[in-house]
Design goal:
- The protein is of the alpha/beta class and about 550 residues long.
- Among the domains are: about 200 residues, 3-Layer(aba) Sandwich (Rossmann fold); about 140 residues, no CATH class.
- The protein has 18 helices and 15 strands.
- It has a six-stranded antiparallel beta sheet, covered by helices on one side. It has a six-stranded mixed beta sheet with strand order 8-12-13-3-14-15.
Length: about 550
């Protein structure tokens, strides 16, 4: 509930700080005193758009701060979803700077206006003539019925199922589209896939083939140089191998004379071993070098196949061809296995659909069950509010369509006069009648759910006498379950409040300002007497005011 409101530099308000409590709070004041300014300030702190015209002094910033006690509202998950810190005593602050920019904070954390709007729906319900238009909205009408039917958990489960159902339907549609597209390309893709499959390409194969072919194409030069290298290695007179043998022999003869000679001898021996190994490999390579025309042809054919495939698929390596091969395999498999995948998806959809239908049936039955009770309560309340012939015809009917809140279509019709025809609320009910219908609905809702603070903005317009007493009684009953604040011009309603606030204008240093104060018991008697008789308060008005308060 709203526990405190502070306003600085807004419209006609220079500075205001006021506390609110639970129960029924009354706000009165002369026309033009600033009651609408209070509502404007509350709207601003809860996310309404602002401009520089909101500032009383355009050289200073406007600050509006509202404090709410939210411990019993179970809003932790809402705060978590908005990524803001939860506090049992939540403070919302809005600042409009002289530059025209605005800032908003929830528990000192900066937030955007959409966050304030979300919180407004949980914390504050400002009921005005304009809001009565909601009565003709099917979503609001379903909300009334579902609150009484205790359908919240079932509808939440249904919405999760519907989300999954829609997701599966989308996946099935994509599968069918992909199947159609893939079928059109299937034969061509299968040909390309088979071609690459038969090629049986291996990573690194192209480089190996090119190396072998390069070797065979230069066989004469390779053979000549291998022979010369062998000659230079093993020649009996000038061959490297024989010269190293001689050198090793020389150093062995003197190695015993010095450690240095011994090390030199060992190094020559190591070189000799390496040369012997090289000579062996030269001999092997020389023996293996042989020109084979058939092998050259096979290598050329294999490489040409690889080059042709690379050109066809616009790639330059075997690894890229293998990737193309894998993609083609997927496309071919997609067509060949599509029917099975589609069948599986259709089965998933059927399973979810069965559960959704069961939930929708349960929701519909719960709605149907509470309709007589809702109709009776609304008609009784409206009878008390001066509409004795008001009648409702409310029906739900199960359809084959999955809506966001079930499968029901709703007929919510009203007749205000005896023997009158039923019609849509917006077509057959006047503005005053709509206000009383909305009050009755809010009364029913307050007894069946945790509603936020509600502010009634002159809901009593156009009524008087006994009806106003009934309106006040209903507000009192609502205030046992929630915080109710009402702006009124009727003394009968003003007298029923738990606490009474007055909006008034005063002149300060030649400047008109609006202010708000909580009235004491004596001040309250005078205020209600003035509402009864005007500024000239008579003894009879004072007596009447005391009677109303008692």
């Amino acid at each position: 509930m709203l526990t405190h409101l502070a306003i600085q530099n807004y419209a006609l308000i220079n500075q205001l700080s006021i506390d609110f409590t639970n129960g029924l709070s009354i706000i009165t004041g002369e026309t033009g005193a600033g009651k609408s300014i209070l509502l404007g300030a509350l709207g601003l702190v809860m996310g309404n758009r602002a401009d520089l015209s909101s500032l009383k002094d355009t050289d200073k910033k406007c600050v509006i701060e509202a404090q709410f006690a939210v411990k019993n509202y179970k809003l932790q998950e809402v705060f978590e979803s908005l990524d803001i810190d939860y506090e049992d005593e939540t403070i919302i602050r809005r600042e409009i700077l002289p530059s025209g920019k605005s800032r908003a904070f929830v528990n000192d954390s900066p937030v955007n206006l959409s966050t304030l709007t979300t919180l407004k729906n949980e914390l504050l319900d400002i009921h005005s003539q304009h809001q009565t238009m909601e009565l003709s909205d099917a979503n609001f009408q379903f909300h009334i019925i579902d609150v009484l039917a205790k359908n919240d958990a079932k509808i939440a489960s249904y919405k999760r199922g519907l989300k999954k159902y829609n997701s599966l339907q989308k996946e099935l549609k994509e599968l069918l589209q992909n199947q159609d597209e893939a079928k059109q390309q299937y034969e061509y893709n299968l040909h390309l896939f088979t071609e690459l499959e038969e090629a049986n390409l291996e990573a690194g194969e192209q480089e190996s083939l090119e190396e072998k072919l390069e070797k065979l194409n230069n066989i004469e030069e390779i053979k000549l140089n291998l022979l010369e290298a062998l000659q230079k290695s093993v020649d009996e007179e000038v061959g490297v191998q024989n010269l190293l043998y001689s050198l090793e022999n020389n150093l062995q003869k003197i190695s015993s004379y010095s450690k240095e000679y011994e090390e030199l001898c060992q190094r020559i021996s190591s070189v000799k071993i390496e040369i012997d190994d090289i000579v062996t490999e030269l001999e092997n390579e020389n023996d293996s070098v042989e020109y084979n025309p058939n092998e050259v042809e096979e290598l050329n054919d294999r490489l040409q196949l690889i080059y042709n495939l690379q050109k066809k698929h616009l790639v330059t390596t075997i690894e890229e061809l293998q990737e193309v091969h894998n993609n083609l395999a997927d496309k071919v498999a997609q067509v060949e296995g599509a029917d099975e995948n589609i069948h599986k998806k259709e089965q998933e959809i059927k399973e979810v659909e069965v559960k959704l239908n069961d939930l929708a049936q349960t929701i519909s039955e719960a709605r149907t069950k509470v309709l007589p009770k809702l109709t009776k309560e609304l008609e009784e309340l409206l009878s008390e509010l001066g509409m004795p012939h008001a009648r409702f015809s409310i029906e739900v009917s199960l359809t084959d369509t999955f809506f966001f809140n079930g499968k029901d279509e709703l007929s919510f019709l009203f007749s205000a006069n005896k023997g009158g025809n039923f019609g849509e609320l917006k077509k057959v009910a006047s503005g005053g009648e709509l206000s009383r219908i909305m009050l009755s609905i809010k009364k029913v809702l307050s007894e069946n759910s945790q509603l936020p603070t509600i502010i009634f903005d002159e809901i009593d317009t156009g009524v008087s006498g006994e009806v106003s007493n009934k309106i006040a009684a209903i507000m009192q009953q609502m205030s046992q379950h929630m915080q109710v604040i009402t702006i009124t011009h009727l003394p009968q309603i003003a007298a029923k409040g738990t606490q009474h606030y007055k909006v008034f204008k005063q002149e300060m240093n030649g400047v008109t300002e609006s202010s708000l104060k909580q009235l004491s018991s004596e001040e309250r008697v005078v205020e209600i007497a003035e509402m009864l008789s005007g500024k000239e308060v008579s003894e009879s008005a004072l007596t009447h005011a005391k009677e109303l308060l008692n």
